[in-house]
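queue> pop job 88
queue> type: inverse folding (structure -> sequence)
queue> payload:
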């Protein structure tokens, strides 16, 4: 199970380092993040770059189509969504609380395809090996703004 491997990576401490690595107490946060990303990739996660909201939507669209490719193809449909079909999915997903969104992602969604047929889409599987795992490095830049001798911090996530 992939989550067990992730836990093993996270619980690693400075006394238990692989050959050639620095002990955790002597490496920067940036280096720790890169080690974690490398290890996640080694167990099947794919590294992705998402710089804009449009990138997030495009990635979600592609991953959802890949995850449901077999069901779509059984309906004689390409393993992708038209703009209209994806818009239906987003209307179903948008503007919900975190709790409601979690429920939506665990349920199946009945999508009416452009050809009039219905397909039951899954967002996740109970079989963790079937799910698609990705990791994204979030670059947090701290900027100091000096106004009237007061220090304010602004964080940019991108």
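queue> result:
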């Amino acid at each position: 199970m992939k989550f067990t491997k992730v836990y093993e990576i996270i619980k690693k401490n400075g006394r238990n380092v692989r050959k050639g690595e620095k002990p955790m107490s002597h490496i920067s946060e940036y280096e720790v993040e890169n080690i974690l990303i490398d290890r996640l990739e080694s167990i099947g996660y794919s590294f992705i770059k998402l710089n804009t909201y449009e990138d997030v939507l495009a990635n979600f669209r592609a991953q959802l189509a890949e995850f449901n490719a077999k069901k779509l193809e059984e309906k004689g449909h390409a393993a992708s969504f038209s703009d209209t079909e994806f818009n239906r999915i987003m209307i179903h997903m948008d503007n919900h609380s975190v709790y409601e969104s979690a429920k939506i992602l665990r349920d199946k969604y009945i999508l009416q395809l452009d050809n009039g047929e219905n397909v039951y889409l899954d967002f996740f599987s109970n079989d963790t090996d079937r799910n698609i795992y990705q990791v994204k490095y979030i670059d947090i830049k701290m900027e100091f703004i000096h106004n009237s001798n007061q220090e304010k911090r602004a964080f940019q996530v991108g």
